[in-house]
Amino acid sequence: MESIVDLYDKHITQNADPRIRDWPLMPSIVPSVVITALYLVFVLVMPRVMQNKPALNLQIPIVLYNFGMVLFSFYIFIEILMAGWLTDYSVFGCQPVDYSDSANGVRMARACWLFFISKYVELSDTVFFILRKKNSQVTFLHVFHHGALPIFWWFGVKIVPGGFGTFHTMVNAFVHTVMYFYYGVSALGPRYRKYLWWKRYITILQLTQFFIVTLHNSQLLFVRCDNYPVIFAIAIQGFTSSVAVLFLNFYIKTYMTNQQHGKVEQNGLAQNGHITQNGDVHSKMKYH
């Protein structure tokens, strides 16, 4: 029976992209696993530490964080667009990974690595929740997505930093740009709520993302893509589908069921959605 080390060498080391071998966090999966483990320890321990302490007022850090993520996400979106999807790539059929040292090939790999790094930056979502004693937002789904995605993306960047799967990355980076802008405006305080009339369209945007990514991924049912392992498309689809179901349920309850009973929030903030009545940012259903 092959050992874990043998399997790792067979499937990861031998298939790794040599261009990113020495990039930060990429030589080994160990640092990523350690960071994720520390994140889980924080999730388990800090709520108890904060139990008898007052919630921290983190409005300024949250505002800066959100608008910082707007810039970061938009930059990633533009890089992926310019490195492939607006130049050499096609949304139809298999899009192979460019493993060469060409300008666009390296640019796409770097954009994928930045997206991977952004998954660790987004662990701050949970930190803000817990330090502000908003523990109800730290659901299993929230922790699962925040904890699992960095590990998943390590494998993605290590083996396939480009190609077919970056369509999802590009779309997701754009959605994050819009969402973090919404969260940032909300975090500014109640007087800015009048500018959040478009909250309903955030959920529609998430659902649209699901359908676009699903439609794109479905092409692999009909075409071969030897250069891009189908397991990555399946994993992307799994993450997308699980959260899409929750967003659809949220949309139906908030904008359809509640409208029938006249219970839609008038202050533009949904209790179980992206924003709560007191201006909390980052929903437990936030998609990554």
Automatic annotation (TrEMBL):
Give me the segments passing through the membrane.
Answer: 29-50, 62-87, 107-131, 138-155, 167-189, 201-222, 228-252
Where is it predominantly found?
A: membrane
Q: Where in the cell is it found?
A: Membrane
Keyword check for Ribosomal protein: no
Name the Gene Ontology biological process terms: fatty acid biosynthetic process
Q: One GO CC annotation, please?
A: membrane
**UniProt superkingdom:** Eukaryota
What EC number(s) are associated with this protein in UniProt?
2.3.1.199
Q: Which reaction does it catalyse?
A: a very-long-chain acyl-CoA + malonyl-CoA + H(+) = a very-long-chain 3-oxoacyl-CoA + CO2 + CoA
A molecular function GO annotation: fatty acid elongase activity
What the entry lists under InterPro entries is as follows: ELO_CS (IPR030457), ELO_fam (IPR002076)
Its name, as the record gives it, is: Elongation of very long chain fatty acids protein
